[in-house]
Design a protein that fits this description.
The complex is a heterodimer. Chain A is mainly β. Chain A contains no helices and eleven strands. In chain A, strands 2, 4, 5, 9, 10 and 11 form a six-stranded mixed beta sheet that branches. A five-stranded antiparallel beta sheet of chain A has the order 1-3-8-7-6, with no helix packed on it. Chain B is globular, with a radius of gyration of 13 Å. Chain B is mostly beta strands. The chains are: A mainly beta, B mainly beta. Chains A and B meet through strand 5, strand 9 and strand 10 of A and strand 5, strand 9 and strand 10 of B.
């Protein structure tokens, strides 16, 4: 059974700092890995999708990497802003479209 | 393009009562998901539909939960009877066919409180 762990559970940083969020998974036989953002009281928004054959994906100030063999992914946020404050979730997916989510990292960026 | 719609947004019921949630996916999206998200945890898949057929319902508590997707469009999730531990946010998501099928689009969720 796939298990996804995200560390830390919460993170508080000053504005402008670069930061890394971590995600680990127990079964390396994944089809893809996604990073999502969730704002309080809202649904999830997909940020980056990495295929199992890829090593990283970039979108603006976000960069996600994937090391399938070691069961790890990181989300790098450059030059953090208060608007980045949210919960970030990673999810590993199968080719049938089933996703297993971690419990998320709640990020607070202080002005 | 309109997003995934869910209603109601909030619901408060007493234990042993029944409740139903409704989801309207993005037009043309073949796959529809229902997730349960307990406070402080990530979403847990309850059921996945492909058009109007069930692909995966292995984590759906079938003694009290049921879901249907009539005509492969809208979907309803029902809980009967509700328990205290059912208090959670119920998220609906949909994904398009073809190469973009891996990207899920989520609705705002229905927040359920069982007293």
């Amino acid at each position: 059974k796939q298990e996804v762990t995200q560390i830390p559970a919460a993170l508080s940083v000053p504005e402008g700092e670069n930061l890394v969020l971590n995600c680990s998974f127990t079964d390396s036989a994944i089809y893809n890995l996604q990073w999502f953002r969730q704002d309080p009281g809202k649904g999830l928004t997909s940020l980056l999708l990495i295929q199992s054959s890829q090593r990283e994906q970039t979108s603006g100030r976000l960069n996600a990497s994937l090391d399938k063999s070691s069961g790890r992914s990181t989300l790098y946020i450059a030059a953090s802003q208060p608007g980045d404050s949210a919960t970030y979730l990673c999810a590993v997916g199968t080719n049938a479209g089933k996703s297993t989510f971690g419990d998320g990292t709640t990020l607070t960026v202080k002005p | 393009e309109a997003g995934v719609a869910q209603s109601p947004r909030y619901k408060i019921i007493e234990k042993r009562q029944s409740v139903a949630f409704w989801c309207n996916p993005i037009s043309g999206h073949a796959t529809l998901y229902w997730y349960q998200q307990i406070l402080g945890q990530g979403p847990k898949l309850l059921i996945q539909f492909q058009n109007n057929g069930v692909v995966d319902d292995s984590q759906l508590p079938k003694d009290r939960f049921s879901a249907e997707r009539l005509k492969g469009v809208d979907s309803t999730l029902k809980i009967q009877p509700a328990k205290l531990e059912d208090s959670a946010v119920y998220l609906c998501a949909s994904s398009p066919p073809g190469r973009q099928r891996e990207v899920q689009y989520f609705g705002p969720g229905t927040r359920l409180l069982v007293l």
